[in-house]
């Protein structure tokens, strides 16, 4: 998700809208803040890796 690189300046985390969209697109549910953090970091790493190849 390209939007994974859009983070809040204060806490360096994605916003709730990012996670709402992820739940809708991937049919997943986040049961904890740790799960959100891991998913957000994983998606950011995937995005960077994809665009690094370009």
Model description:
The structure is a single chain. The protein is an all-alpha fold and 54 residues long. The chain has helices at residues 16-26, 33-52.
Give the gist of this structure:
This protein has 2 helices and no strands. The protein is mainly α and 54 residues long.
Structural class: mainly alpha
Distance between the termini: 16 Å
Task: Please summarize the sheet with the most strands.
Answer: none
Low-confidence stretches: none
Mean pLDDT, rounded to whole units?
Answer: 95
The H/E string reads HH
Determine the strand fraction and express it as a percent band.
under 5%
Task: Specify the overall morphology.
Answer: globular
Instruction: Tell how many strands the DSSP assignment holds.
Output: 0
What's the alpha carbon Rg, rounded to whole Å?
11 Å
The number of helices is 2
């Amino acid at each position: 998700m390209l939007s994974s690189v859009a983070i809040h300046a204060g806490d360096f985390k994605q916003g709730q809208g990012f996670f709402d969209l992820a739940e809708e697109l991937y049919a997943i549910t986040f049961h904890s803040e740790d799960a959100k953090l891991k998913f957000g970091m994983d998606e950011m790493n995937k995005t960077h890796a994809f665009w690094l190849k370009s």
